[in-house]
Design brief:
- This protein has a single domain, classed as Rossmann fold (3-Layer(aba) Sandwich), CATH 3.40.50.720.
- It is α/β, with parallel strands linked by helices.
- It has ten helices and twelve strands.
- The strands form four sheets. A six-stranded parallel sheet has the order 2-1-3-4-5-10, sandwiched between helices. The chain has a two-stranded parallel sheet with strand order 6-9. Strands 7-12 form a two-stranded parallel ribbon.
- Belongs to the dTDP-4-dehydrorhamnose reductase family.
- Catalyzes the reduction of dTDP-6-deoxy-L-lyxo-4-hexulose to yield dTDP-L-rhamnose.
Length: 285
């Protein structure tokens, strides 16, 4: 009997990474949607979709992720990041389905100097983080059958991400400046996709909140240097302070996530971000 899995936001980094692995999970049946085929901000549309389709698991990859733009477009960010998850949670509850929702390290303020655990108190410092936290809270208040996974600094061969931005800049620039006082953990979207599918495949699911990111913390500056090194791009990277690179949204200075709980509950071990980066760049360059 195949497990029926709905993937929302399927054209983004994570959704495409799940599609790439589909053939490795022959006992799963995937339904992929985007904002055109399933508007998660419309409660009636979500309810109708769930009634028409037999869904056992919903992986919500849909999100408003433009961090700076969210500051001036808070209404849309709220609809997608907070209301959407609530409507999916209501539909999952009515269908007795499990909701797997992706959240972010940006729910934290970055004041710690050691990795954030699931028991640390969120305190978002930008509109994006606030709307993502509202989404988390709406799920917790709506259904018991949920897995919320916070991840960080997602990169892949798909969509928009820091790695692809650096590669694009390398075509026209021989020197760039990147902030060196924001520290986190880059996470390969393919790795996160595997972790999610392993959770669904596990015999017993421990519902709740989890953190997942690849291991070894780094700064955006060092991440950029590694990207150019692995891609054999001759680009000089200059370190600058965040104060000298003003953005609409404030970013946490430290947002490394501790992934031990996922290892304990599901035996899913996070790997180092560099190992995947090298493979991805080999495929792109």
């Amino acid at each position: 009997m195949k497990k029926h899995i709905l993937v929302t936001g399927a054209n983004g980094q994570l959704g495409n990474s799940i599609k790439k692995q589909e053939n490795q999970w022959p006992h799963f049946r995937f339904i992929y949607t985007d904002s055109k085929t399933l508007d998660i901000t419309n409660q009636n549309v979500v309810e109708t979709f769930f009634k028409k389709n037999s869904i056992e698991y919903c992986i919500n990859c849909a999100a408003y992720t433009a961090v700076d733009q969210a500051e001036t477009d808070q209404e849309l960010a709220f609809k997608i990041n907070a209301l959407g998850p609530k409507y999916l949670a209501l539909a999952c509850k009515a269908s007795n389905a499990v909701l797997i929702h992706i959240s972010t390290d940006f729910v934290f303020d970055g004041c710690k100097t050691s990795p954030y655990t699931e028991t640390d108190t969120p305190n978002p410092i930008n509109a994006y983080g606030r709307t993502k936290l509202q989404g988390e809270n709406s799920i917790v208040q709506t259904t018991e059958q949920y897995i919320i996974i916070r991840t960080s600094w997602l990169y892949s061969e798909y969509g928009h991400n820091f790695m692809k931005t650096m590669l694009r800049l390398s075509k026209t620039r021989s020197e760039i400046s990147v902030v060196n006082d924001q520290v986190g953990s880059p996470t390969y979207a393919g790795d996160l996709a595997t972790a999610i599918l392993k959770i669904i495949d596990s015999k017993t699911i421990q519902y709740g909140l989890y953190h997942y990111s690849n291991t070894v913390e780094t700064s955006w500056y060092d991440f950029a240097k590694t990207i150019f090194k692995f891609a054999n791009k001759d680009v000089k990277v200059n370190p600058i302070a965040s104060a000298h690179y003003p953005t609409l949204a404030k970013r946490p200075n430290y947002s490394v996530l501790q992934s031990e709980k996922l290892l304990e509950q599901f035996n899913i071990k996070a790997s180092r971000w560099e190992s995947h980066l090298k493979k991805v760049l080999e495929g792109l360059t």
